[in-house]
């Protein structure tokens, strides 16, 4: 009896100490880092946010009942949100089950290493383990059973409805698979042959669930209008995120500072640049996600990829497509693969590296300085502007081609 009372006291103290913000943050990071390492899809910023919210709610829910012999499981909305997001994104049930399998193992290791191991009395430590493990296992087993039903219901509804067909078409395009443009245009009710500006919209975690969908429905329409387009195409990107595309016959309008200032409070937007056709549909979306990653780091309300392109390329989050886009835009015909154009590029790259010193470049290439200057003029003719225009972008494009080639 003494041991039982001591166990109950220890569990109560454990629950109180574990509810601190510092402990919660540490556990969520440890558990979710391990999940993301095993399941790479959770490196996606939106999925990771949903995962973090789910793990935090699971832990707080368990702590609320840890001292009780009979565990009453009542999942918080954030826990259901993760299951629904996985279903909407087209993942199979084993992914959800793996999240809880890995999470259970990681959480148990965290508990035993940070809390239980500190119990000096071996008898009490053993008694605590005998009480704690069944309660944690019971909590998670019951939770998984409820989430399987939620996942199946959401998946069934999603697959049956028009949203499923629209989302599947979008994901096929984003995956780079071949599509019939006319059929896809019909399925999406969206003109794929036009120019596209993609953007992501997401809502802060502390916004009430009742307000989330209203904001996710209204904000894309407002942003699309600011870009000069009709109602945008939208699909779910997470429990509090939508991915959007606005179509225009020509270049879209820039999202102005006034447009950003008019956004609803606690709503965030990351906007890609305007590109043509199906490839442009993909490219602009990738830019929007890269900008979103920057926005998460900086905590800003809205961000334009055009403003952070160089940072995204430097950080590697713009990918090879981002490099290719920069090269095509900045070099144009100066990116041709023939030997003559390659000589112009190499000369220009060295010229910019040496602050426009034609004599220094001539010594490196064994050329007369006037020959160097002539090549620079030829390069400017191909570029259509002075080499001093957008110099940082131009120099980066030249370095990319020098390192990776023109293919």
Which helices and strands occur, and which strands form pairs?
Blueprint lengths: L1 H17 L2 H18 L6 H21 L11 H12 L4 H22 L7 H39 L1 H13 L6 H8 L6 E9 L5 H18 L6 E6 L2 E8 L8 H5 L5 E10 H22 L3 E3 H11 L3 H13 L7 H15 L4 H8 L3 H15 L7 H14 L3
Parallel strand pairs: 4-5
Antiparallel strand pairs: 1-3, 1-4, 2-3
Written overview of the protein:
This protein is an alpha+beta fold and 407 residues long. It folds into three domains: 159 residues, Orthogonal Bundle (Globin-like); 155 residues, 2-Layer Sandwich (Alpha-Beta Plaits); 76 residues, Arc Repressor Mutant, subunit A, CATH 1.10.10.2840. The protein has a five-stranded mixed beta sheet with strand order 2-3-1-4-5. α2 crosses α3, α13 crosses α17 and α15 crosses α16. It is elongated and about 90 Å long. The model has no long low-confidence stretch (mean pLDDT 88).
- Rg, please? 27 Å
What's the SSE pattern?
HHHHHHHHEHEEHEHEHHHHHH
CATH architecture of the largest domain: Orthogonal Bundle
CATH superfamily (homologous) name of the largest domain: Globins
Quick overview of this protein structure:
This protein is of the alpha+beta class and 407 residues long.
């Amino acid at each position: 009896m003494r041991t039982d009372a001591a166990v109950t006291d220890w569990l109560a103290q454990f629950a109180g100490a574990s509810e601190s913000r510092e402990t919660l943050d540490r556990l969520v990071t440890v558990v979710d880092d391990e999940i993301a390492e095993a399941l790479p899809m959770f490196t996606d910023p939106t999925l990771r946010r949903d995962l973090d919210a789910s793990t935090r709610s699971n832990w707080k829910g368990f702590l609320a009942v840890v001292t009780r012999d009979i565990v009453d499981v009542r999942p918080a909305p954030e826990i259901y949100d993760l299951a629904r997001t996985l279903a909407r994104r087209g993942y199979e049930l084993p992914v959800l089950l793996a999240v809880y399998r890995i999470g259970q193992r990681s959480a148990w290791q965290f508990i035993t290493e940070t809390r239980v191991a500190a119990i000096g009395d071996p008898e009490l430590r053993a008694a605590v383990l005998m009480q704690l493990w069944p309660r944690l296992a019971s909590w998670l087993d019951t939770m998984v059973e409820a989430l399987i039903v939620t996942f199946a219901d959401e998946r069934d509804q999603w697959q049956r409805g028009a949203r499923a067909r629209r989302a599947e078409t979008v994901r096929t395009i984003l995956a780079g698979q071949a599509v019939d443009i006319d059929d896809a245009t019909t399925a999406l009710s969206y003109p794929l042959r036009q120019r596209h500006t993609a953007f992501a919209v997401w809502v802060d975690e502390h916004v009430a669930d009742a307000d989330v969908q209203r904001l996710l429905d209204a904000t894309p329409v407002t942003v699309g209008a600011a870009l000069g387009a009709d109602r945008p195409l939208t699909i779910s990107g997470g429990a509090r995120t939508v991915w959007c595309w606005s179509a225009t016959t020509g270049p879209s309008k820039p999202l102005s500072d006034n447009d950003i200032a008019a956004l609803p409070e606690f709503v965030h937007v990351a906007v890609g640049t305007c590109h043509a056709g199906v490839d442009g549909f993909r490219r602009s979306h990738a830019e929007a996600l890269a900008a979103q990653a920057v926005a998460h780091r900086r905590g800003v309300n809205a961000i334009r990829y055009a403003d952070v392109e160089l940072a995204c390329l430097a950080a590697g989050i713009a990918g090879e497509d981002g490099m290719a886009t920069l090269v095509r835009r900045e070099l144009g015909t100066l990116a041709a693969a023939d030997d003559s154009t390659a000589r112009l590029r190499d000369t220009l790259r060295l010229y910019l590296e040496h602050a426009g010193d034609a004599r220094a470049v001539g010594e490196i290439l064994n050329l007369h300085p006037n020959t160097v200057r002539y090549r620079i003029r030829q390069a400017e003719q191909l570029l259509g502007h002075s080499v001093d225009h957008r110099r940082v972008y131009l120099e980066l494009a030249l370095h990319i081609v020098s390192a990776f080639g023109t293919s």
